[in-house]
Design a protein that fits this description.
Strand content: 15-25%
Mean pLDDT: 96
Bound molecules: ligand PMT
Number of strands: 21
Helix content: 25-40%
Distance between the termini: 26 Å
Number of domains: 2
Length: 403
């Protein structure tokens, strides 16, 4: 799985830096080209010569370590990486990553790379639990950084608790898993919808909902990071555009319907995270509606159910619907799954704190034809997206094997 890959191994300055030697050695044995960057403090715990000998490549310490005049080192390292691993990651490097600082070779390369980043933190138990460190890790998780959790036990500082660097074998396994998952989606065409549709009433007024698009954008980002060709059809959304994703902006449910239908045949996977209006004004006034009567009655008509139409016209696509519910989650989710012929339905109980509209987090339950298949706790939407993609690819593989 790892053979032929290039991994940039960043080592920051904690006592666990000594374990990075074993990690480097295991990666090299697995056929990986390992390019090591050490921070100045890391070099106080373990010598660059050790890592140079194990990796069989020069070790970078300073931003201006230009060993090859033909290239700019930090850009070359950033571009060459299939994956970046930071092990151990101190509270300091996490803070620099979160803030986007570039004041040494490691942080500069991290800013320059578009490769996925796997972080294995190691620090004192109180530092690990500090709100600043927690917040930085949350922020990085939102941006798609993956973590290998530290272990609990006797720490070098004398404390007993959480903060011990994960064992090198575990970090290697996490890297393998990352490549396995990515390869399952490489080249697949993924169509994602996001945001809340806007249904115009007159020239300045409209009906919409609280969707920010964050859930759908997180899915699109996670999919493109796994090598998929992603098209994101977005209605009104506040989430930022994603590099590498083809984005199509729409406004109304009707425009979303047309845009999705145009691309459906070519899609392998469709994920409908958008909050689509069920009703739209029957009449749209060209100008601004004047204030005249005491009461104004607006007549609404049903929009086309895009997901249901996709289910009816399914020809091999893997179809995932969302369900925003407030009660009887399983009942309504299963009803949607069957009525709309979905392969999976992701239900979020939007009355739960931390779940649903306009938040960075979500709490979801995923249903398949056999019922509940995964219940996720409160997680960043980016993490929900990753777990969902793993479920999708696993089930597609199982479906393919059964055919
Ligand atoms: O965007 P965020 O702020 O991050 O919030 C995320 C979210 C809460 C919007 C998202 O997680 C979510 O639940 N999206 C679906 C919301 C919704 O419209 O649920 P629903 O139960 O009304 O619709 C069920 C499914 O049918 C959805 O996949 C929806 O996209 C689809 N649908 C609905 C109506 C319609 N006319 N056409 C559709 O395709």
């Amino acid at each position: 799985m790892l053979r032929g890959k290039t991994i940039v191994l960043g080592i920051s300055g904690g006592i666990a830096a000594y374990k990075a030697a074993a990690l480097c050695s295991k990666l090299v044995q697995a056929g990986v080209t390992v390019r090591v960057i050490m921070t100045e403090s890391a070099a106080k715990f373990i010598t660059p010569l050790t890592l140079q000998t194990l990796s069989r490549h020069p070790v970078y310490l300073d931003t201006f370590d230009e060993f090859d005049p033909a290239v700019v080192s930090h850009i070359n390292l950033a571009d060459s990486a299939d994956l970046v691993i930071i092990a151990p990651a101190t509270a300091n490097i996490l803070a620099k990553m979160a803030a986007g600082l570039a004041d040494d070779m490691l942080s500069t390369t991290l800013l320059a790379t578009t490769a996925p980043v796997l972080v294995a933190p190691a620090m004192n138990v109180h530092m690990y639990a500090h709100p600043a460190v927690e917040r930085n890790m949350e922020l990085l998780a939102e941006r798609g950084v993956k973590f290998v959790e530290p272990g609990t036990g006797q720490l070098a500082c004398g404390y007993v608790g959480k903060g011990r660097l994960a064992e090198p074998e575990e970090i290697v396994r996490a890297a393998e898993q990352w490549f396995t998952q990515r390869d399952k989606l490489t080249g697949k065409r993924v169509l994602v919808t996001a945001g809340g549709t806007v249904e115009r009433l007159d020239a300045v007024r409209y009906l919409t909902n609280d969707s920010s698009g964050k859930m759908g954008f997180a899915i699109a980002e996670a999919a493109v990071n796994r090598g998929a060709e992603v098209t994101l059809i977005a209605a009104r959304a506040t989430a930022a555009p994603i590099a590498g994703v083809t984005m199509i902006n729409v406004e109304s449910a009707e425009q979303m319907y047309n845009s999705v239908m145009e691309r459906y045949e070519a899609a392998d996977i469709v994920v409908k995270a958008a909050a689509v209006a069920d009703y739209r004004p029957l009449v749209r006034s060209e100008g601004k509606i004047k204030k005249t009567e005491e009461r104004l009655v607006i007549e609404l008509e049903r929009t086309t159910d895009i997901l249901k139409t996709l289910g009816e016209r399914k020809a091999g696509q893997f179809l995932v619907g969302f369900a925003a519910e407030t009660d009887q989650i399983e009942h309504y989710a299963m009803d949607k799954l069957r009525r709309k012929n979905c392969d999976l339905v992701v239900a979020n109980n939007v009355s739960q704190e931390g779940a649903g509209f306009n938040l960075d987090t979500n709490i979801v339950q995923v249903f398949g034809e056999e019922g509940l298949i995964e219940s996720m706790p409160l997680l960043q939407k980016r993490e929900v997206a990753d777990r969902l993609l793993t479920l999708i690819t696993d089930r597609m593989a199982a479906k393919g094997a059964g055919e």
